[in-house]
Amino acid sequence: MTAPTTRLPALGRVFRVRAGVELKEFFRQRESVVFTLMFPVILLVVFGAVLDYQIGEGVTFTQYFMAGVIAAGILGASLQNMAIGIATERSDGTLKHLAGTPMPKAAYFVGKIAQVVAVTVVTIAILLVVGVVLYGIDLPSGSQWLTFAWVAVLGSAACTLLGIAVSSLAKNGRSASATVTPFALVLQFISGVFFRFDQIPEWMQTIAAVFPLKWMAQGLRSVFLPDALAASEPAGSWELGRVALVLLAWVVVGLLLCVRTFRWRDRADG
Asked: Where's the ABC transmembrane type-2 domain (predicted)?
């Protein structure tokens, strides 16, 4: 008799199950939830309370800061979350185990992407609610929401791919946070998250312009600030076309880096 063949589940079902696993694992880890979701909210509350002043054109610093803190929240949900999480899973053998199962390897990345999307949406929603309720933030209107959406999507995609690539820099799971967090904080300081970008030294602006966070924050400022404040940007305008091109370029670069650097095994395993 011929042995019965075992039918593998449909690919779509595998992707959905893996996405569910990633979401459950994330939201069951209190430290990750607090740091990733609440840290940008804490920044908004603290900076909004301390730096409550007008920056011109009837705009408060909190209104200006809203774009930066959302960009920082996206960075945390994508780059930091991916880099630290994947490095930890590589170090504890999770990736090695998954690579040895019949699960398509693509399902692992689909699950990670689903996690980033969910965390990013929740983070942005919380920040917008807190900003409106506590500080009377003026929300985007009309077509500005479309700009908000594509900047957030491209920025999140670029930072997610960069985070997957950066995960290979950490020697092990214990050193991942120490490797990634300082890099992310420096990017935030020089990219116009905590300060007005035109008040940052030019050499720092030049460095920031290499990375996606600066462009994501600039694109988001275009929907939270009046057009009159575009004059304070380095080029004197929001440069939305360049924002799109740079973020798309980082998506391509990030994808190439992932292909070249991603490892399923820890360095110690060979």
From this structure: 31-265
